[in-house]
Design brief:
Layout: H1 2-12, H2 18-29, H3 38-47, H4 52-87, H5 91-104, H6 106-112, H7 119-128, H8 133-190
Helix pairs in contact: 2-4, 3-4, 3-8, 4-7, 4-8, 5-6, 5-7, 6-8
């Protein structure tokens, strides 16, 4: 099932309406869909390098808008979603996200933009724990925006070689960035 979804996303990246599909994919991924928008953003940025920043902006806006939906889902429907999260194997990730909110608040959402834990888990958890909405949106803009602009920029500058490596190592890159941000926060707080 996921292989077909992935193949569909890559084909959609070449379509004239691909920017709309990118927005829809970023929106859906932030609240309920399993495929991250990077798999569409990277081929689009590669195909039209001069539009890479525009595509990153589209992915960011779509992701933040979808994150708002995820927040509402978590705030209003969490009890009915818990069995679904368990069935799909997201419950452990949800518990991790909830723990991050307890310890890091705003920073948890910012880090979620880079984390290999599905972003939808964080958006739903933010609504479930009633994180203040404005900080949630601001952290989403910064975290998701940074991720998509980094992806678009690297693909734009380094081309097809980077796209292949990005898709192969995206989880490792995500965890490395999370670790760097955590160390930076710790150093900043110790000062």
């Amino acid at each position: 099932m996921f292989a077909r979804l992935y193949a569909w996303v890559v084909r959609a990246a070449k379509h004239p309406r691909a920017p709309w599909a990118l927005f829809a994919l970023a929106f859906a991924e932030s609240s309920f869909f399993p495929i991250p928008p990077d798999v569409m953003l990277a081929p689009m940025a590669l195909a039209e390098r001069r539009k890479a920043w525009r595509f990153a902006l589209i992915a960011t806006v779509g992701s933040v808008a979808g994150g708002m939906l995820g927040y509402v889902i978590g705030a209003l429907f969490l009890d009915s979603l818990l069995p679904w999260l368990k069935d799909l194997g997201y419950y452990h990730s949800y518990e991790t996200a909830r723990d991050w909110f307890a310890h890091y608040g705003f920073w948890a959402v910012l880090l979620a933009g880079f984390s290999p834990i599905p972003y939808k888990v964080f958006t739903i958890a933010a609504g479930a724990v009633a994180m203040p909405f404005l900080p949630f949106v601001l952290a989403s803009l910064v975290g998701r925006g940074a991720r998509f602009f980094i992806v678009a920029g690297l693909v734009r500058w380094f081309g097809p070689v980077f796209e292949q490596r990005l898709l192969k190592y995206i989880d490792w890159i995500g965890w490395a960035i999370v670790a760097i941000v955590i160390v930076a926060i710790a150093v900043f707080q110790l000062r």
